[in-house]
């Protein structure tokens, strides 16, 4: 029996435990994690770690001794398979039954897999855990031709890291542009050109028919019948939220588990945070969505920790993201989905520019490429719901802070 049981050892789960102690919680805490490793940063997996530029030790969220000193019990290499909400108890895949006073569900999600034949061949990889990337790294010396399936952040970051390691890379995207779900067309076209300039063969509007090989992958057959030779495939087509035990226990949900403004599920004393938490987001005009970011996981974790120590609040954190590819640092603030206008600020040819997204004249998001100043100042425009003059927005000589509404 623990006063608080946290399911998930990623960013959200780790931050929940840290924030509980920081806010004076003196009860017992257990973190149940499916991986054998203590909590670590996931974003570097598809970037620095895959490229061999960062060691795993430098990715740890806290040193191992931290958890012991704070009396936070790490229960690793196990996952929760069932919840008894009435009894306040979880059951793990190892058969343990663990009681809780409060339960924080931070299990994230699992990579969506291809449904076609050959999806389980040796050499077909996803990027979600350290073990995933370690398997890729082990195979890389024998893998020259890599096909990356999916043109979102994970796919693009993996393609960049693999090109830096000298691999021949083909990137396949089913839609007519990369980053179609998260960015406007100007940014998509810039990243397509940037990857092609680095030698990535970017192919758009293509569907995968099947993966071929006897035991190990030897090729990717497209729906057109063309076969691309491949020693390795990397699949980055999104995640499936890990919420089955919650839904089976009676929690409301669909694409994730539904939470209220305090990250409470419909089960008593059960919270959900991070990638799997379906919530009404103020920066999407109250639409229900899941935000897959470190920022969201950490901020929701802190909110829940404060609620548990008697300081309840309402989730209203500004969304932000980042992505590193080659020499390009992309910083995003706000949510651009549903925008009706996009203003280019600066010249993409200089590899330093921003895209400002508007909805009915209001700034809702920015994508900033190698433009940290725009990112910092643009955040204030998003938070203020500013409606600046579009001509001034487009002029990179006008600081964004000068466009803030007067208070």
Features:
globular; 7-stranded mixed beta sheet; 23% helix; 10 helices; 407 residues; single chain; 29% strand; 5-stranded parallel beta sheet; alpha/beta
Q: Helices, strands, pairings?
A:
Elements: E1 2-7, H1 11-22, E2 29-32, H2 48-51, H3 64-69, E3 72-75, E4 80-84, E5 89-92, E6 97-105, E7 109-111, E8 124-125, H4 130-139, E9 145-149, H5 153-164, E10 168-173, H6 185-197, E11 201-204, E12 208-212, E13 219-222, E14 227-229, E15 232-235, E16 239-241, H7 244-248, E17 253-254, E18 256-258, E19 270-272, E20 277-281, E21 287-289, H8 294-308, E22 320-325, E23 328-334, E24 341-345, E25 353-359, E26 362-369, H9 372-384, H10 390-394
Parallel strand pairs: 1-2, 1-6, 2-3, 6-19, 8-15, 9-10, 9-15, 10-11, 18-20
Antiparallel strand pairs: 4-5, 5-6, 7-16, 12-13, 13-14, 17-18, 20-21, 22-23, 23-26, 24-25, 25-26
Helix pairs in contact: 1-8
Task: Explain the overall architecture.
The protein is of the alpha/beta class. It contains ten helices and 26 strands. Strands 1, 2, 3, 4, 5, 6 and 19 form a seven-stranded mixed beta sheet that branches. The protein has a five-stranded parallel beta sheet with strand order 8-15-9-10-11, with helices on one face. A five-stranded antiparallel beta sheet has the order 22-23-26-25-24. The protein starts with a strand and ends in a 13-residue tail after the last helix. 42% of the residues are buried.
Structural class determined from secondary elements = alpha/beta
How many strand units? Answer: 26
Total of helices: 10
Principal-axes geometry comes out as: globular
Largest sheet: 7 strands, mixed
**What is the residue-mean pLDDT, rounded to a whole number?**
96
């Amino acid at each position: 029996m623990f006063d608080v049981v946290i399911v998930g050892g990623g960013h959200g789960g780790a931050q929940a435990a840290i924030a509980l102690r920081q806010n004076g919680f003196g009860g017992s805490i257990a973190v149940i994690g499916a991986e054998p490793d203590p909590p670590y940063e996931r974003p570097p997996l598809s970037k620095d770690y895959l490229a061999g530029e960062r060691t795993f030790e430098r990715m740890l969220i806290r040193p191992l001794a931290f958890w012991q000193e704070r009396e936070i019990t790490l229960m690793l290499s196990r996952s929760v398979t069932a919840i008894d909400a009435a009894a306040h108890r979880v059951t793990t895949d190892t058969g343990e039954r663990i009681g809780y006073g409060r339960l924080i569900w931070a299990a994230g999600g699992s990579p969506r897999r291809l449904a076609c034949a050959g999806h389980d061949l040796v050499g077909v990889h996803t990027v979600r855990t350290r073990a995933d990337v370690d398997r890729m790294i082990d195979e890389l010396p024998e893998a020259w031709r890599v096909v990356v399936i999916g043109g979102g952040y994970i796919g693009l970051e993996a393609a960049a890291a693999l090109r830096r390691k000298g691999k021949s890379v083909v990137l396949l995207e089913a839609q007519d542009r990369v980053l179609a779900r998260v960015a406007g067309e100007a940014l998509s076209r810039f990243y397509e050109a940037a990857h092609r300039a680095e030698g990535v063969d970017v192919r758009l509007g293509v569907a995968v028919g099947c993966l071929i090989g006897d035991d190990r992958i030897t090729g990717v057959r497209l729906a057109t019948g063309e076969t691309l030779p491949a020693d390795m495939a990397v699949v980055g087509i999104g995640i499936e939220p890990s919420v089955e035990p919650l839904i089976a226990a009676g929690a409301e949900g669909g694409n994730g588990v539904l939470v209220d403004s305090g990250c409470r599920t419909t089960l008593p004393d059960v919270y959900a945070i991070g990638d799997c938490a379906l919530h009404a987001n103020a920066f999407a005009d109250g639409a229900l969505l899941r935000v897959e970011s470190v920022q969201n996981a950490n901020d929701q974790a802190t909110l829940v920790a404060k609620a548990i120590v008697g300081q309840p609040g309402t989730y209203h954190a500004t969304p932000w993201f980042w992505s590193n590819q080659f020499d390009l640092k992309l910083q995003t603030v706000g949510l651009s989905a549903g925008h009706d206008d996009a203003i280019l600020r600066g010249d993409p040819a200089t590899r330093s520019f921003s895209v400002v997204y508007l909805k009915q004249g209001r700034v809702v998001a920015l994508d900033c490429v190698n433009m940290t100043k725009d990112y910092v100042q643009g955040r204030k425009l998003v938070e203020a719901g500013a409606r600046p003059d579009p001509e001034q927005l487009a002029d990179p000589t006008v600081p964004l802070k000068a466009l803030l509404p007067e208070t």
